[in-house]
Amino acid sequence: MALSEFLTELDALAAQAKTAFDAARDAASLEAARVEFLGARSGRLKTVQKGLGQVDKTDKPAAGKRFNEVKQAIEAAFEAAEQRQTSATVASTVAVCSDPTVPGVRMRLGRLHPITQTIEELKEIMGRLGFSVAEGPEVEDSWHNFEALNIPPEHPARDPLENFYLAPGLLLRSQTSTVQIRVMEKTKPPVRIISCGRVYRPDTADATHYPMFHQIEGLLIDRGVTMADLKSMLRLFARSAFADDVHIRFRPSFFPFTEPSVEVDMSWQGGWMEMGGAGMVDPNVLRAVGYDPEEYTGFAFGLGIERICARRHGITDIRELFKNDVRFLHQF
Length: 332
Ligand code: DAH
What we know:
The chain has helices at about 5-25, 25-40, 45-50, 60-95, 115-130, 140-145, 180-185, 225-240, 285-290, 305-315, 325-330; strands spanning about 130-135, 140, 165, 170, 190-200, 210-220, 245-255, 260-265, 270-280, 295-305. It is an alpha+beta fold.
């Protein structure tokens, strides 16, 4: 066979193979084309290879070289077609799975819980009045929760039915007043702190009670502090937290850690609402932490954060705050 004839045959084969591979629509037809051209036994390339034997001896090296080139080209064309097909399959699968007409899933932006928002604002307000933020543990010993606060062992507030005891002398704190003691034990007067956090009492949950709630505690100790300072500070606080037309009222009360003690009521756009307790720090408390009550006096207060939050937002049932229902929480 003449060299030119062999080469023509080779070129024709290469062109046909490429056309066949390109035309193959699916894996089965591509495989059929592969067998037709590259099949190890009776593929057409194999058949042409047999013609190599009939090429004139002098032309054989050139014919063989050209044969190898064409073989590589056909194999490359097959691989390219195979690659194209895989990508097409992936693309069509993606296309099937992502229907652009399906309504999207709305991304919901998270936000701080209304209680957290309230705490942040209260800290801000008190920060402007010169109070820094202190923290204390939620698992407390009876010294910080009771004794140091002038609550003796026989006091009804220490009853197991009124507290979540974890072990003798260890409980979930029932008030943030514990932080007063923790701060005074560590610092010398003057003291001017607030502390916000969870407290626990075995109350039955209803619209205004929950076995876990939040308090903001304040403590100011210095020379010559009076009840007038307490009242003006609380009024400033209430006006900042609500509005200028808020009124503050003190009612005589009793707390073991303050003397005198008062209940703090607030009135805003309507009736009076109880916010918490306050008073002048009892000399026994000052003595318990090593302060000299002859030299220092101070005031303390403890307010319910749920109440403040509920009043500000018009929430009528504080249980809603703890259901974790985003439809409710999303409103604030
Ligand atoms: N600890 C009190 C309570 O949980 C609230 C309270 C009253 C805190 C008077 C005070 C205070 O600091 O002076 O009922």
